[in-house]
Give the backbone structure.
Amino acid sequence: MILYLDCSNGISGDMLVAALLGVAGATADEAGPLDKVVRPALRAAGIDGRLVSLGTVRRGEVDALAFRVPEGPGFATFDELIMSMYASKLDQAVADDVAKLAQRMAAAESEVHGVDVPHLHELSGIDTAVDLISAVALLHHLRPERVVASPVALGNGTVDTAHGVLPVPAPAVAVLVHGLPPADLPDDGVILGELTTPTGAALLAEFADDFGPAPAGKVAAVGYGAGTREVPGRLNVLRALLIEPAPEREDSMDEQRESTGGRDDRSGAARRTASGVAGGVRRERAPEDAEPQGRDAEAEPPAADAGPERQGRDEKAGQASTTAQPEAEPPIAAPPEEPPAAASPEEPPAAASVADGPVAHEPPPEEPPVAEGSPPAAASAADGPVADEAPAEDSAPAVDDPIALDHVLLETNIDDMSPELLAHAADALREAGAVDVWMSPATMKKGRLGVVLHVLCQDADQRRLADVLLGETSTFGVRVLPVGRIYAEERRESVTIGKLKIGVRLGFVGGRLVTVSPEYEDVRRVAAAVGRPAKVVYEAAQAAGRARFSAS
């Protein structure tokens, strides 16, 4: 299914939630998904689900659903919202998306008002958090394959904000809709005010995959979400359509050919070739027209009066050979009884052999007589350089460089040392320059519990570190294993949680962010400062890192 959002009258968080509820089957009399999806998600996030209600309002000639949230205190900062999501019982995927939206809105606010804004006014009321959580929960419930939206109406005039009276679109909205297509508004002098809010802009920018008209298909459900105010000359309604895509008709080309009297019975790929869709396939399909001629020519007995007709066929075959596959030509050259001169009497024999070269096997035997005076070894020597060069050409760029075994793994089994001395030995090895040191539990001879001490080091350091290992432990020998290492591309950045910075290590593979690892000591410090569990701060830092650096 495709979810289509008609944003010609703008979009806000409550309008989107109401429209999605309508698509999901909710009505003012039968809450349905409001009770099954929205309220449970709010309760999981620590918000009383009874705060929200659903009603019906009239906008112009349309009855639309109105999603209402009473006024109440919200979150002080987006960081607080993110940490609350991860401290909650929300589904992980929903919490991730709410965190991304919060980070997107925080980045827009910081770009407009500065990075040290202590309070972000969009979160001063509980309605912003409720709209974000409800909209994300409904989108995960509907699971559309794609979200398509129309160009979005931003409005005109001015809007009252906590930062004063600002032109529409407000600066934060302008940042959030950067790169999205705006809808044209009539130049009739009517003041519309703000039609797209920061919450609506963030939701649209995060989830819309494409912008344009509604895709072809069958409309499965429709929902209308009403805004909070009447707008002169406009409905102030967001319309959502759930569309089942129209199946692609493979026989449409056949119907067109029937209407013109030229039906083509070949496969769909061949029909697309004929229409110019797949030029590469056209070259593969062209010999099919020449094959019946080749077979007919093979079946026909050579006749004297058939010379011109055969010559015409050979000319066609010569023209097709520039595009045909080699497999189509053997039937023409296969009959041994056809002398080359009879096939094309006007052409000299050299031209005939050139034309038939790809399928004839005479040229290879003709070359040895050129070297008649040379011993057999001379012929093989002439071919030698070619044979020697081919592997070099194939092997140079065709395979990845081998992994360099530039590290060494030192290992030893120990079952007769105290844990204190083992810990001291590990510290001594790290201080001596080991890349890493760790221990694995093991069961030794006579059932004794012991450890395997592993030391990873540079190849040049193996002897020096082996001496440290022998001196600091009770072992009498060390295993030495050459190893290589494969690295992810690593970057070190920082994110802000509770106005405090946390360092994060980012791992990229093929330019894609795959790992976000917050620094442990930073997490401990921030958790103590903001009075939240370290687990919550760690997950909030991960979410902030994914949201901020995934596209970098």
Q: What stands out?
A: The chain has a mean pLDDT of 76.
